[in-house]
Structure formats: C-alpha cells, structure tokens
Amino acid sequence: MMFNTGSSLLDAVVLSVVAREPEGTYGYRITQDVRNAIDVSESALYPVLRRLQTGSLLETYDKEFSGRNRRYYKITAQGMIELDSYRRDWIEYCRKLNSILLGEDL
Amino acid sequence: MTRQEYLSGLKLLLRSLPVEEQEEALEYYRGYFDDAGDDEEVMNEFGTPEELAQSIVTKFAGIPSVRQKQKNESNDGTCGSFTNDEVRSLDISLGAAEIAMITGTCFSVDCRGMAPGDIRYGLSPFGTFSIENSRKIPDMNFWNHNDASGSSVNHPRILIRIPEQTKIDLLRLHIGAGSFTAKDVDIRSTRSYIDVDAGNIVLSKIRGGAAEFRCGMGNISFTGELHGLIKADCGMGNISLMLDGNQEEYSLAAKVGLGSVRFNDLHKDGFGSILSSGQKQNHFSINCGMGSVKIKMR
Question: CA end-to-end span of chain B, whole Å?
Fold first, then answer.
C-alpha cells in the first residue's frame, strides 16, 4: 500500500484482528491476518502485541496445541472500548478524506 | 543458521531489556517458529537476529514506565518491592556488575544486560532483603567490550532502590569485581560488613555502629559516621574512611605490613610496624598488608 500506517492505526488493526476471534488467536495467525490488510514487517508486530497487553487492552493465556503450549491473545473489555473509539475515529476520518479525495458530500 | 542458533543469538542481544521482557519475547518468537513451520522463510522475514533485536529493543523504550505503575498499584511484594517496615537487614552479594543504589519509595531491584535468572533477590521470613548472583560466574559479558551489538548498553547493570532514611540492623555488602556506588543514600545500620575483592565500593551518608571492612585488591571509599568497634582488613587495596566525629573519642590500633595507615595526622608506613593509641569505646582495629588505609575524622 502506498499510504503509511501510523502506530495507532496498527494498534486498531491488531485489536480488530484479535477481536474477531472470541476464543482468542495466536501470534503467527495475527501476523498473517494483519498482513492481509496492510504491509507491515513481521517483526513489527510483537512489540505492538506486547504494548497492548501491558496496557491491558489484550490478555494472554496458554493452551496446549500439538504437544506444546501456544500463547493466545484475547481482547479485554477495555480493549473493546478502545477498539470502538478507534472505529468511530476511523469512520470520521474516512468521511473527511472521501470528501476531499473523491469529492463526496460531507 | 538454524532456528536454535537464531534464537540463541536473539537471546544474547535482548539482554538490555528487563528480565521478564526477554523471556516474554523469546517465548513469542519460539512459538512463532513452531506455528510458521518454515524456519528459512521466517528468518528471511525477520532479518538477522541483530535487526530483530533492534526492532524489539527500540520499540520497548516506553515499557518500563508501565511496569513501574503496575508495581506501585499492586504493591504486594511479588515484584520484589518491599517497604521500610518489612526489611530488617540488607544482604548484597554480587560478582561482576555495575551496581548503583539510589533513594526510591521502596526496596526494589532493576536489572539490565543480563540473562534471566542471573540475579536472585527477595525477602526472607526474617526480614533480610538479599540480592545475589544465582551462579558463581554468571554468563555475563562484563569484560567484553566488543559485544555483538557494539554498544556498552549490554553491560550487566543493577539498580537498587531503597526508601529514604532506611533503618536496618545489618548491612552486608560483598562485591567481587564490579563496582558499587551509593552516593547520598541515607542508611542507618546497627552493624555493617563491607567486603570487596577486586571491585570498587563507594558509600556515603551511612551511619551506624560497629563496622567491618575487608578489602582484597579493590577500593572502599566510605563517608559517614561509625561507633563502637571498627575493623578494617586491607590486603592490596585501598580503604578510605571519612567520618564525622571527634578524633579524641576514637582510638586506633594498627598492624602494618608493607602498606600505609593514616589516622588524621598520625601515620605509619611499611615493615611490620604497630601503631597504637590506647583503647577507647570507639576503636579502630586495622590490619593492613600491602594496601593503604586512610581514616579522616572531621
């Protein structure tokens, strides 16, 4: 994509990807899902996940998967509130950009 | 490069992060390799261990403040922070590290530049807060100036916080080859044992009763106030005591080998001399081999 992804947009994308799975999802899959939408290097995602986790927007738990423990990330109530606020901001942002880029009515 | 080699490389490069962060990150990347399956492809994507470590370490610049906040909120001692009431004595025994002690709100320890598990600390049921190396010679790169990451940030560093006006029964400090600095940290301790092998100890604003100093090849510089029996044993190093008090109330007995002993204006150098100024309630007992012991009262 030719547009830059800022860090808050990346946070929002990661939160949405995790929120899609009620049971939670794991690092590798989050990376693949995020990369379907935006072009971000794989190494950029761990710090984001860790930051969201220490900020209590995501929580983790370990579950056994083929003989080892796999770490799952799940969105918290606080994370849902944050995501909701990101979504509102995003709608507003798109509306304004569309009016300029595509000449749509505000 | 195999997955194992890649991960061990990464492990070394993450040592400037707090211990919990190192483990957390390694766990994540181990799991990532497992889930991805194709090691080659993953390593291509992540870049070299140096590049990956760089992206983790720089992104974590803001994390410690979050951890600090959680620590204070819970304050249940599980993170290694204790209050003035709980701690009766301090027992610090460390090999090679750069150690600084500063005033904080509670007793706590922060480590950088060492592998998880190199340092153990905690409070015993009897109120001894102890900090020690978990291994005799830990896997530390203290002497290696050409670290893979090329920066000095990876030296083992330990920051010890103690509350203002700490009052303890016993201060025991043993430093191997590193440096220990506590400048303007108020400690009152009934008894003190200060012991250095080849390192460097700087203590100021310590007040207390009986004290014992032992110095192998290193340096001890002490500023404060001491009463009762004060013993100093100096092999090849230097011991310097700058004490508050009236010289008239202190006496001294010294055995001097090849070294030198100074007690204010009184001084003695070399060959098997003995220096004595009676026996008062506050008494210095000095044993000096080849080093130098300097005591100044003001």
Answer: 64
